[in-house]
Amino acid sequence: MFSKGNLAVPCWLWRSMRKLFLLLSVLLFHAAHLEGKKDNQFIWKPGPWGRCSGDCGPGGVQSRALWCFHVEGWTSPLSNCDENNRPPKERSCFRVCDWHSDLFQWEVSDWHRCVLAPASAGQAPPRTAECVTAQHGLQDRTVRCVQKLNRTRVVNEICEHFAPQPPTEQACLIPCPRDCIVSEFSPWSECSKGCEKQLQHRTRAAIAPPLYGGSQCPNLTESRACDTPISCPLGEEEYTFSLKVGPWSKCRLPHLKEINLSGRAVLDFSSDSKERVTFQHQSYKPHHLSKPWDLDIGFQTRQVWCTRSDGKNAMLSLCVQDSFPLTVQSCIMPKDCETTEWSSWSPCSKTCRSGSLSPGFRSRHRNVKHVAIGGGKECPELLEKEACIVEELLQPCPRYAWRTSEWKECQVSLLLKQQDPHWHVTGPVCGGGIQTRDVYCAQSTPASTSQKAKEVSRPVKKTSCLGPAPSASQLCNLPCSTDCVVSSWSAWGLCVHESCRDPQGRKGFRLRRRHVLMESTGPAGHCPHLVESVPCEDPMCYRWLASEGICIPDHGKCGLGHRILKAVCQNDRGEDVSGSLCPASPPPERMACEIPCRMDCVLSEWTEWSSCSQSCSNKNSDGKQTRSRTILALAGEGGKPCPPNQALQEYRSCNDHSCMQLYWETLPWGPCSEDTLVTALNATIGWTGEATCGVGIQTRRVFCVKNHVGQVMAKRCPDSTRPETVRPCLLPCKKDCIVTAFSEWTPCPRSCQPGNTTVKQSRYRIIIQEAANGGQECPDTLFEERECEDISLCPIYRWKPQKWSPCILVPESVRQGIMGTSEACGKGVQTRAVSCISDDNQPAEMMECLKQTNGMPPLVQECTVPCRDDCTFTVWSKFTPCSTNCETTRSRRRQLTGKSRKREKCQDSDLYPLIETELCPCDVFISQPYGNWSDCLLPEGRRESQRGYRVQGDSKECGKGLRFRAIACSDKNGRPVDPSHCSSSGYIQEECVIPCPFDCKLSDWSSWGSCSSSCGIGVRIRSKWLKEKPYNGGRPCPRLDLKNQVHEAVPCYSECNQYSWVVEHWSPCKIHNELRSLRCGGGTQSRKIRCMNAADSEGGAVDNSLCSQDEIPPETQSCSLLCPSECVMSEWGPWSKCPQSCDPHSTQRRTRHLLRPSLNSRTCAEDSQVRPCLLNENCFQFQYNLTEWSTCQLSENATCGRGVRTRLLSCVRSDGKPVGVDQCEQRNLEKPQRMSIHCLVECAVNCQLSGWTAWTECSKTCGHGGQTSRARFIIMPTQGEGRPCPTELTQQKTCPVTPCYSWVLGNWSACKLEGGDCGEGVQIRSLSCMVHNGSSSQSAVSVDAALCGEMPFQDSILKQPCSVPCPGDCHLTEWSEWSTCELTCINGRSFETMGRQSRSRAFIVQSFENQDSCPQQVLETRPCTGGKCYHYTWKASLWNNNERTVWCQRSDGINVTGGCAPQARPAAIRQCNPACRKPFSYCTQGGVCGCEKGYREIMRSNGFLDYCMKVPGSEEKKADVKNLAGKNRPVNSKIHDIFKGWSLPPLDPDGRVKIWVYGVSGGGFLIMIFLVFTSYLLCKKPKPHQSTPPQQKPLTLAYDGDLDM
Fold first, then answer.
1. Using CA atoms, how far apart are residues 1109 and 1106, in angstroms rounded to an integer?
2. What is the H or E stretch that residue 559 is in?
3. Residues 6+ apart with CB under 8 A from 599
4. Sign of the alpha-carbon torsion through 729, 730, 734, 738
5. What does DSSP assign to residue 1048?
6. How confident is the model over 636-686, as pLDDT tens digits?
């Protein structure tokens, strides 16, 4: 229990808590309010959408950035923005890829009509009257992005990826509105004589329709009453009456009550109609599958009434004459065409997915059940096609590419046969040729299957491959073989052992060698042997070579002494070797000699041994060498005497070996064959890198040959020089034959085939790689053929019409009710059933017959049941037979029957002829040549393919042929007939000749001439000369010289030591003065010289001219024989060598030594000489000399292809003298690298042509002017100097003129009213078979209908409704002629491509009472091509009493109404405003007041006439009246009168101002300026704005004309 005091505490506490709660609530509310304000202060802002990424198509994704922005514009963390309002960051999109360009496209509609551009604000729209040429307009069109397959619309961004959006709006011009343009009126029609009221009329035709808002055509007719001199008395007007017939009503069935149920008509209760009645007829049963189709026969009626010539109706009795027109007739109830339901859709034509993504198509069809009858609705389309969308599941379509086989072997003979048709193989051929390959189309194999190297696609039709096919032939080259070029033989070597490493026996060999200058080329290139040997005895591989020093006396200065010998051991190649190798002991180091004393005889040193006189020894002679020495000084008293002459010469034998040399001969290397050992080794090491082929061995035979004898035992030749007999080689890989798979069988025809035909199908395969090196051979069968199975023969369908039913008339009750007559006669209809049957008379669907024929035979036709009063006849008899004579006729007859024989009207033979006569057919035909002669055509020869290549020479290209000219064949009456009646081929032919082309013929090359130089480089020449010139397009000749020759020059090289001078020893010195006792002093000595060929083993002399004449040695020389007391010196030694640079500061020296001192101790002559090294005197430099490259040299067996160009190397001394190449080689000069390069001589290839194609179909199916042609193609164009391609690659000939048969519609007949005088009737026209020859000059002639084939069954084109106006009727005229084609043009330039032309029908009013019932005039316009631009201008006649005629004229001279701009129309009436009331004034043509003749106008300043002033003396001078036309300037024509009295006239006779007038005027003008300026300076006042008084010059000019008054 609480006390009262205690209760106060909780109350206070409660109050305090309540206040606190309120405070917290307020705080929370405020915080929430602030939070709410915070939410509104931050908003989401998205960025632009990024690019669509991901998969192509609708599966793409697009993203964008999001930011959180404060309302004041600064960004903040995303958490401050409300997540619930967050915009999406991603969305799906359509990702456009490049291949989509095949799926989507811009679809653009045509431009819509050009409409006037809306006027801008504040601008009034232009009025029509203000339009001058055209107005600015706008035209728009619809542009949208669509999917190609189904044309559905997609977003524009997809198409914008590939192409910018086409514009949707463009500016255009609208020509000014143009009114309808009509021609001039025709003359008024004639009025007939009579008293009744008549109208006459005139009409005009529309030339151009109203365009662009122009006004409609005015009335095309004008009528007016005729002027009648007297009017008819009342009631006595003369009228004419006409029986007018109305149009036939629609065909209808009679009501039940209208039928007389006497068995004639039968009720048909099977139909839905309550009172539908059919007359008796044949049910149309075309086929047992179709239900019977009933032809309902009804009736139709028409009204007949009598009209008066003033247009009013009159009593019928006033019009009816003998017979009343038919007002009811039978008819067929119209029935529409009936078709079956649509078939199901065919499968889509696209069965695979191709890169183009173009849609496929599918179709469905329906068949005709019943054709339209009686004007019912015609059959609709029977075939419907639509695009079908390609399914994604389809396999990709195969792709095709061109493939080729490997090139076949090179055929040189083809080119050689071109050059010489009589060429035949005589030996190996080489050089340029032609090689071919097969080109075929095959499916591109996908990358996944391309690893199978052997799998080759099967060939397909060549049309499947796009792009140009690879070349099937090319030029090629068979390498020519050339033999080695070798140097001349070296000198014989010393006698050496066969092997110096293992010397055995006393027999050895002497060798001589030659080396290869140029290697052999080609497979059959051969090198001769390079080493020859002869056997010898006492061989030595090493021998001592001693060199002697000078003689040194043993005691004192003369007498006996010794020479020091220096011996060196050398091998057989002349190289220094160790002395231990020489077998014998070295020669002694000293050798005895003698130095002559003062009185001794002095002899020279021995000369070198001469060259051997023979290279070998034969039976008759051996080789010899000599050496000699001469007496230099005679002996004195007591001195040692000189030896006899015989002791001055020494001889020794040389080259004593036999001339029968031995050498190794080799045969060519054999084929590379497999070697088991090498192959096993190769399998492990892979020597070639291709383990499949490996290394094999080649062998050859080697045997020893003795010169001039033949093969000898192998041991006779040195084994060390034996060539190798085995070498490794690369085994050629085995190449199996590779063929393609067989192509698909050519398809058998799916459709049926006519007649008893056998169709074959075939397939083929192509050899891609021929077998080689023992590979698997190619199969024999490359082409297979078989007959197609299950080929169905085409059934032939035809119509089978039944018999016509009896003629069905209008029901009797209907006839009696309408016509009041009961006789069952007159016009009716009869029907028949027509069925479709096959060849074997089986019923078939109607559609089968409709496909094979032009239409369906008629099911209904009109018929007539003769009335009692009608004429009846028997049927026509057969025609009488014809005789063989062409002029005869044949006839047929008929007779009247029954009561007709007694009626007069039936016996009128003009109306009812009883005999018909026609000309008999005649078999006489006339042929006439037509067209030009064809080209000369050669008979087709057999074209055989030589290794897959068709050669021009295989077919005949020239010689005798035939040319053809077509004929036109006609019968006796000039009607064209088939040309087979005149000639079996349709041609006349005659022989012709195509001249054969003859090539330029040259002789064979002459043999090469000798080299022009005997030492070093010269030129060799060969030539060929012209034998026959080319003609008729043969190969042209190369460029010939004046002698009609072609030369070929090549550099040549002659070894400089090949021919050399050989000298014998000098004879003893012959003293001039022999009377001297000592016989010493000066004298002469001589020697013999001869020219020798170094290669001649016999050593015989040759003609001296072969040796260099510059180097000819002297045959005599002066000499001296020293006396005993004179000092004797030895001969000079050789000069020391100069440096190679020939430096002029360097010198060369030579020495000699004392042989015998003089008696009187005089000093002897000098023992040494020095001279400077002077270039080209005693010092020479050497360099290699290169010739230019030669022309391209071919092998002897080649005419073109790869050859060699060579250049030659020689050595030339610095003074220009050629020397041996060894001189340059000794100095180690740098040799050029290449002495020969490959080159190509262009092959002269004749133009290669394909065979002629088959003749094309005639360009016209019949008649004149048809052409047939055939063509051939260039397989390989002309190369080099080959025969050029013919310019004409096509041949044409005119087709035989076959007659053209066609169904021709006749002209419409007059309007048949069937008994009436005017009203509605029918026009008919006939369809006749006509023949013509297709030329415009010959008219068509009617012939038998059977020649045109089946007649097209179309009644609608043979009958049409028409009307004949009654007198007094208001009616339309016939159509006017079409106007000329006119284009809409602006300023003479065409505004459109298609023009338009118009025609019109005007109405004719024949009585004023009928004006209200007149039809509207009719205007018809159609587009046309080839239009012109016309312009329209106003024309006016001359004024007559201030009036004239104004009309509009077209630019071609036609006067029209409309077309000219109304605002530009000139005035037709002339009047002045204000009127001319001044004395002597009148209104001029310009519409202003002028003065009469003899008076001059005085004009006011405003241009109007003030008054007329009389011209003084005008009577005598006959001054013209001035017509100022409102201007105050005098007319030029009066100026002559003004200046007539002047002595110096200022004007020429032609009215031009003279030059002095300009000078005077200029001077006066300057004086005036000076005066004005001076007066201005004098009279200048302080007032600045005072103006000068106005000049009176205009007034002066106005009265210029009064100077002569």
1. 8
2. strand 559-571
3. 635, 636, 637, 638, 639, 640, 1124, 1159
4. negative
5. E
6. 887 888 888 888 888 888 877 777 888 999 988 888 888 766 544 444 333
- What are residue 735's phi and psi, to 5 degrees? -115, 115
DSSP for residue 1508: E
Torsion sign (Cα): 1591, 1595, 1596, 1598:
positive
To 5 degrees, how large is the angle CA 553–CA 556–CA 562?
A: 10
CA dihedral 1392, 1394, 1395, 1396 (to 10 degrees): -130
Asked if pLDDT for residue 1582 goes beyond 90, the answer is no
* DSSP element (H, E) containing 27: helix 4-40
Place of tokens 């045509």: 110
Backbone angles phi, psi at 1294, to 5 degrees: -75, 140
* 1016, 997 Cβ separation under 8 angstroms: no
Q: How far from the centroid of its chain's Cα atoms is residue 1296's Cα?
A: 33
Q: Are 636 and 657 in contact (CB under 8 A)?
A: no
Distances from the Cα of 1434 to the Cαs of 23, 671, 1380, 1457, 1467, in angstroms?
103, 105, 21, 11, 11
How far apart CA 1581 and CA 1113 sit, in angstroms, is: 129
- The answer to whether the pTM exceeds 0.85 is no
Dist CA 460 CA 743 (whole Å): 6
Query: Can you name the residues that pair with 67 across neighbouring β-strands?
Result: 45
* Strand arrangement of the beta sheet that strand 439-443 belongs to: 400-404, 439-443, 459-460
Type of residue found at 1407: S
Task: Return all residues near 230 (Cβ < 8 A) that are at least 6 apart.
Answer: 195
Mean pLDDT throughout 559-565?
A: 85
Under 8 Å between Cβ of 78 and 87: no
State the pLDDT confidence band at 1099, using cuts at 50, 70 and 90.
Answer: low
Q: Where are the beta strands (DSSP E) in 931-1080?
A: 959-971, 976-977, 987-994, 1001-1002, 1016-1028, 1045-1054, 1059-1063, 1070-1071
Supply φ then ψ for residue 1299, to 5 degrees. -70, 145
What is the pLDDT at residue 183? Answer: 92
Tell me which residue of 1020, 1032, 1119, 1013 sits closest to 1070, measured CA to CA: 1119
Q: Which residue, among 1467, 1421, 1428, has the nearest Cα to 1450 in the 3D structure?
A: 1428
Whether the CB-CB separation of 695 and 679 falls below 8 Å is answered with: yes
Give 1017: exposed, middle or buried? Use CB within 10 Å, 0-12, 13-18, 19+: buried
What is the distance between the alpha carbons of residues 777 and 1037, in angstroms, rounded to a whole number?
Answer: 46
Question: What is the spatial distance between Cα 347 and Cα 359, in angstroms, rounded to a whole number?
Answer: 13
Two structure tokens written together for 286: 């075309």
Alpha-carbon distance values, 1324 to 244, 855, 856, 1224, 1360 (Å): 20, 20, 21, 116, 7
What is the spatial distance between Cα 956 and Cα 939, in angstroms, rounded to a whole number? 8
Q: Which residue type occupies 883?
A: S
C-beta separation of 1297 from 979 below 8 A:
yes
Helix (H) or strand (E) run with residue 1573 in it? helix 1555-1578
- CB neighbourhood size of 456 (10 A): 18
Two tokens, residue 117: 């551009």
Label residue 1282 left, alpha or beta by phi (over 0 means left) and psi (-120 to 50 means alpha): beta
Cα 601 from Cα 643, distance rounded (Å): 8
- What are the beta bridge partners of residue 962? 937, 991
Least confident of 482-486, 603-607, 1545-1549: 1545-1549
What Rg value do the Cα atoms of the chain yield, rounded?
Answer: 64
CA distances from 1086 to 397, 601, 1069 (A): 104, 22, 8
State how far Cα 972 lies from the chain centre. 51
Distance CA 1218, CA 1212 (A): 4
Question: Is residue 831 within 8 Å of 806, Cβ to Cβ?
Answer: no
Q: What is the C-alpha separation between 1040 and 1030, in angstroms, rounded?
A: 13
CA distance 280 to 294: 10
